[in-house]
């Protein structure tokens, strides 16, 4: 169970990440104890992407149970302005699906475009949109079995609709209508709502319902009939359902009031609809015309239904919260809003939009609390008085940081909140926000926070241990999902990832409170292409910096053995066992198709790789600097093909298996004990000169004399990684200052479990070993390769020299 006590950087962090094939705007959905045919009972998390894919993943390990794709998505330039990159490289499944656990069915809307011609891209210019429909656009309602991914109920069903009133007949346009809100399951129907892309063309707000068990269309509603606009987007939140099954919705800029023929239009309104989508009541702010003129949507967030009352609250881009009684919503009054309460709740810098729907906690110690985090403002907690049924307009608590934390001048879209608690106690507010700037039409770094729900004191954020816990690029409008002690948060890929990237990040209590679950253990591996079965190879056993890596037949040699070191958060370095050089994007390139070579390890981001699980025993490796995947150039299966980096497309030549190299079993090569370390070259041993107890004393080689200053206590740490503590000084053998430089000296210092104080043991045959520093990847070495007494010990890329090889003498 997550509590304010155990959510901290030493006990809580990232457990794993799973790469997916597109950006993720959908909130993860969790099903516990689900029976998967032939695979037992598991906790499963579901995620959908803008590439029209749905994934079923093991919620505890990230293993993929199934994936289904629903055809080519829409190209953004056919539905958006030329400079709006909010949807990356595709527009597919945008609205969060809904699951019916009683029938094991997941419902969602996919979008497709055929006959695409890039030269005719509709709005790929600064001119006004032409509306030329050069492609064929469809939207479809899908229903899948959550255990297998198989379609159900005649899925998919093409979405078409008309809505007829005394104002005339509207026809649903699948190109311009944007299915943004989460789907809602109620009254035996699946309710789906639509808005627009960038307010383009003459769109309307639509809600259409379908029978959940047949996918037959049931009811249709549009909120603007003689007028236009009124999009229902709510920054992705689903529709709100009251105790009688009525639908409550907040709409965006658009026509409001009675039409000439008397039809009530509900743009910029809170609306209450019957289960059959008949308008029952509504509230439209008195300044709605002003809101329309300034693109100040009321419906930029969803509605919170306050438990035990008939009240809803929500707000829009002006930063005001409205508290409305759904038994009497107040309609439109030009001089005075007839609502329960309204007040300015957000005081942002430049803009003060509310996009994240308010959330509610009935706390044991402070009573009912409503939380809202508007853009460029602080997270605010407002108490709700159950007796007066009013919100206290003075916050009882505020965060110490804004959203975003820096560059918070007119930056969108604020914070997206979730709550975890044990009943009325141990409340934690989880928040996903942009970190450093505006995310409205660009990809930007995200930050994930945890706050005490009563005080809003920050308990944890992903920047406290960034290498381990980094969330990556902010996934817009998506609150975290909290379930079974874990936090599921999508991102738009790792930092510097290619446009259109996506991943699911999973956080929870760390094993023994020490660190994340590594997908691959530290060790030495042959890395094979899933496509060709060939191995990553240092061609010609080269020791040259800049040698481009190839795929070749498995030969059992060190040129195909790679020393994997976990750096935290499933980021690894890979150092070739023969050359001692690290796998990297050549020259630190961020270009698509840049070759992958080997070079001296310097701890640079382009020499580090994110490990992401694709399926059991199969992994994707993405470069930390570029975000591109390790790839076989051209996707060929021929020996000698070069390795490059390329946007991940789920191709088998971008997927890799890791097999422990021959002779590198995880069984300890050297038993725990006390040893002298003798150079194969000189026959001299590593010595703490003068029996020094000084931290930072550089080690030297001297003739063996049996003293404790030449004795080292070896402790196995797992995967043939060891520490070495001098028996005389009690200090650990380490690379001075955690340096990654060639020829950096080796000294002794207080043991702090640092990777620079840990050494990987690799057998060189016949009782001889090389020792590779876990941090730098370089070998324990006698400086200059000399045989003289007093020579200093350093590190250097491994070259199979005798002065880099050691025997352990008990």
UniProtKB/TrEMBL annotation:
Q: Which CDD domains match?
A: beta-trefoil_Ricin-like
Source organism lineage?
A: Bacteria, Pseudomonadati, Acidobacteriota, Terriglobia, Terriglobales
Please report the name of this protein according to its UniProt entry.
Outer membrane protein assembly factor BamB
Which residue range or ranges hold the Ricin B lectin domain? 522-659, 672-809
Question: Which parts pass through the membrane?
Answer: none
Superkingdom of this protein's organism: Bacteria
